[in-house]
Structure formats: C-alpha cells, structure tokens
Design goal:
The structure holds two protein chains of two kinds.
Chain A lengths: L1 E10 L2 E11 L4 E5 L6 H9 L6 E6 L2 E2 L10 E4 L11 H12 L9 H5 L15 H14 L4 E5 L7 H16 L3 E5 L12 E6 L2 E7 H8 L4 H9 L1
Parallel strand pairs in A: 3-8, 3-9, 6-7, 7-8
Antiparallel strand pairs in A: 1-2, 1-4, 4-5, 9-10
Helix pairs in contact in A: 6-7
Chain B lengths: L1 H16 L1 H20 L3 H30 L1 H8 L5 H31 L3 H27 L3 H29 L6 H9 L2 H12 L7 H11 L2 H27 L4
Helix pairs in contact in B: 1-5, 2-3, 2-5, 3-5, 3-6, 3-7, 3-9, 5-6, 5-11, 6-7, 6-9, 6-11
Classes of the chains: A alpha/beta, B mainly alpha.
C-alpha cells in the first residue's frame, strides 16, 4: 500500500534518511523502532508529504505522492508533538478539520473523543491544555475520519495509563478491521500484543523489516523488548 | 476551491479576533479624518494622506503579515498533513491576509477619501493603497518562507520596507547626480517602475497636477504616465509586483520541510 524506494533526505549536513526502502501492505500493523534520531519521524513525515525527500520516491497505492494530496484523505496522522493554533478551542479545531475533510469522508468516528472525556473540555483553548490532553486531541483527530491508514508517532507518550489503555484498545479494534497501522514507540512492552511487523532503523538506515514471528525465531526471544535488545547488542 | 474558501474563512476569522487589525483600522480612520478636517483644501489632504499611504501602509502590511505567518506555524503544520494542496493552503493564507488588511484600509482610508474627495485623484490614492497592501503582504510571505527564524524574518522584512521606502530613493538620487550630464528621463521612468512605492507616488502626484513643480522631468513623466500606454504599463507593473513575490514564496513553500 505504501512503498518507499531509496528515499534519502539530508538536513544541512545531517543525513536523516539514507537510502531507505520499505513496503507496507494493507492489514499490517507495523512497529517502527529505532534509537532517538534514527530517522523514524522523518520517514513518517516523508510519507505524509511534510518533508520532501532529496532523492527516491514514495508511492501510495501505486501513485507517486509527490505533487499529490488526495491520498492524505485516507491517512490519519497523530504527530509526536501535536501543535495546534493556540487561541482556538478544542471544538473549533474539530470543526475546522471536519470542514476541511467534509467532502472526503462521511463516517465520523468520535469514539475516542467520548472515551477520553474530551466532550466536557470542548470549550477550552488549545494553549491551556496539558501535554496529555493535547495528545488525546491528536489521537482523536487521527481516528476521527475513519481512515484506511493510521500513522501514530509515539502515541502513548504523555498519556496516563487509563488513556493509554483506551488508545491501545482502539488500535487493536482498528487493526481487526484490516487497516494499515504504523506505530513508532519506545515503550516496546506495549507493542507486543499489537504489532505484526517490525521495521528497525538505526543511523538513518533501515536495518531490517520482518514479521514479529520471524524476529522471535531469529533471536530466540518471545518479548519484543528482549528481542530488540538482543539485536542492539 | 471549496477548501480554499474554508481556509480563507478560518484565516480571516482568526485575523478579526486579533485586535491589531481593529486598532489599525481605527488608527487609519482617525488619521484620515484628522487630516481632512484640518486642511480646508481636499487636495492638500490627499497630499498628506499620500505619505501615510506610501510609508505607513507598506510598513504595517509587511510586518504584520510576517509575524502572522510565523505565528501560524502550528496552523500550517496541522493543515499540511491534511488532504489539501500546499498551494491551496499558502494562497489561502495570502488571500486571507490581504483581504483583511485591504478591508482595514478601505474602512480607514478609502471611505473618508471618497467622502471628502471622490475625484479621480482620490481613486488613484485608494488603488495605490490597496496595491501597497497586497504587494507588501506578498513580500512578507516571501521573506518569511525563506527564513526559519522568526526574529531574522521580521528583521529581514523591516529591511525590505526600509529599502523600498528610503534606500531605493537614495540610490536613485545618487545615480542622478553621478550621471547628471546625461539625459536621465527614460532611465528614471524605468527605475521608478522597479519600486512599487515610487511608482504609486508618481501616479498620485501626476493626478494631483502639481507635476509642474518637478520641472522638465515632471513633464517627461507626465508625458509617459499620463498617456494611456503609460497607465496600462504602470498597472501591469503593479500587478506583477502583486503576483511575483507570492509566486516565488509559493514555489519555496511547496518544497519546504515542515
């Protein structure tokens, strides 16, 4: 569904992506793992068209995403650090997003909004929100339009255990609908029962892309955290 | 197109909530009413207003727009990940900004001018002011898309404003003295075309019929800018000034990493 071919991106002297090629298929739930600064977020932003690669190309359903924007209506994106217009209220942000995407999606999924208890906070301005509440807004927006692809960058960072569990359940629920889900996280223990594939990045390069089962076989470890630790050694 | 209208709506709503636009409108209104009620002669009023329009309007348009673009970085970041073209987003921001600033100008200067002096001169002044507003909004977009740092971007904008309202004239004067032995009328016309502020000033002054004060150069200017072709060329140049900086900023924005 999403295929990146030899994508390279440099920021000044820093190489953020070095000849990265990945192939993400429908129905997979992929964990994007790697140390800080290994290029995970740059890869995600390239897929979303927020970062323009220096060379290489990315296709979404066989269409090159360069100069294309329609494909983004099928993606729900939760950024690592959600930044929102400071003097808009939560409600205004939601209304605006619905306004912008209204022609593209009919099914609105507000399950997370209610589950996170955002309904009571609708009139609060974005600048007054805590980091965790912002994350809740980001998560709710990512799932709001019932997209085919979910890209979640550190989804549970900053969320309290209850909210974290709600989000995890939601991810599992969407996974069962056969969606493509891409998650980056450093909390490997919580990925165990969600993901089916692992992409491991290090120093801007893609080290491997295999299924969880394969990884468990190769390393002889059952827990993802231990398997990764085994590789990093 | 529908998406563009939606985004323009949000930009304009955000700008109206921003008190600065309101303060700007009332300031302009107070200035124009003050000038017109002080001077018995409406032509003199237009003269005084011209300086306000040609110095103050570019300043406010360029600085305000630059700051606004930096302050909307969150808005831009949020929308770039949504299903819409970057072109739509950027042009909507431009349209929203120039629409709001033009509206403020029309309320603050346009209406008083039409009340006190609804002649062709008044109209030229209003059109010049509108052109200054959108041209300098475009230049602001260009300045802010090329500099990531907010302080640098604002500094750059102030410098550009300084260049167009002051430094450029100094350079032209210098050239004039250096080449005083040569006929400079035609190069002068060309030089004034390169600066939207100068071009507007000449157009207004010629309408005011005080070009006689400018001597032989004034006569040459009148010959050129007073003719139909001159007016058409000036209009085209002003239009180019309104389009080119925005187009340049758009090209850059489409490839910018966010």
């Amino acid at each position: 569904m999403i295929i990146a071919t030899n994508v390279t991106k440099t920021f000044g002297r820093l190489k953020a992506l070095d000849n990265v090629s990945v192939n993400c298929a429908k129905g997979q739930t992929i964990a994007l793992i790697g140390p800080n600064g290994s290029g995970k977020t740059t890869l995600i932003k390239s897929i979303l068209g927020m970062v323009v690669p220096d060379s290489g190309f990315i296709t979404f359903d066989q269409h090159n995403i360069l100069h294309n924007w329609n494909y983004r209506m099928r993606i729900g994106y939760m950024p690592q650090i959600g930044r929102y217009p400071e003097n808009m209220s939560i409600e205004q942000v939601f209304t605006m997003m619905k306004d912008i995407r209204k022609s593209t999606s009919t099914l609105i999924d507000e399950e997370l909004v209610t589950a996170f208890g955002l309904t009571e906070l609708m009139n609060k301005k974005m600048r007054t929100l805590s980091g965790g509440t912002r994350q809740k807004v980001s998560a709710s927006l990512a799932f709001l339009f019932n997209p085919d692809v979910l890209i979640l960058d550190e989804p549970t960072a900053g969320l309290d255990p209850v909210a974290s569990e709600i989000l995890k359940q939601k991810i599992v629920q969407e996974k069962e609908k056969g969606k493509l889900i891409l998650i980056t996280s450093h909390v490997l223990s919580e990925l165990d029962d969600i993901v089916s594939e692992i992409i491991y990045m290090q120093e801007s390069k893609l080290m491997f892309h295999k299924s969880l089962v394969q990884l468990q076989e190769d390393t002889g470890e059952i827990k993802l955290a231990k398997a990764i630790a085994h590789i990093m050694k | 197109m529908i998406i563009m209208r939606t985004i323009i709506k949000y930009v304009v709503l955000d700008l109206i909530k921003n008190k600065i636009i309101l303060v700007y409108t009332f300031f302009l209104l107070a200035m124009s009413l003050g000038i017109f009620s002080m001077d018995e002669n409406a032509t003199k009023g237009i003269m005084s207003l011209m300086n306000l329009v040609l110095i103050f309007i570019p300043l406010v348009s360029i600085i305000f727009s630059t700051i606004y673009v930096y302050n909307s970085s969150e808005f831009i970041e949020l929308l770039v990940a949504q299903p819409l073209k970057r072109k739509t987003l950027w042009l909507s921001i431009y349209a929203g900004l120039s629409l709001s600033l033009s509206l403020a100008f029309m309320m603050g200067v346009g209406i008083p001018v039409l009340l006190y002096d609804g002649t062709a001169t008044g109209w030229v002044l209003i059109l010049s002011g509108l052109f200054q507003t959108i041209i300098f909004t475009g230049i602001a977009l260009l300045a802010s898309v090329y500099t990531r740092d907010k302080a640098k971007g604002i500094g750059f904008s102030i410098l550009l404003w300084f260049f167009f309202t002051l430094i450029y004239d100094a350079i032209v004067l210098l050239l004039l003295f250096q080449f005083s032995e040569y006929p400079m009328e035609t190069p002068m016309i060309a030089l004034s075309m390169l600066n939207p502020v100068d071009l507007s000033r000449i157009l207004i002054l010629l309408k005011l019929d005080i070009s006689a004060l400018m001597g032989y150069t004034g006569a040459v200017f009148k010959d050129f800018f007073g003719s139909g072709a001159g007016v058409v060329i000036s209009a085209i140049v002003l239009l180019l000034w309104s389009v080119l900086p925005v187009w340049g900023s758009l090209k850059k924005f489409q490839r910018k990493d966010l």
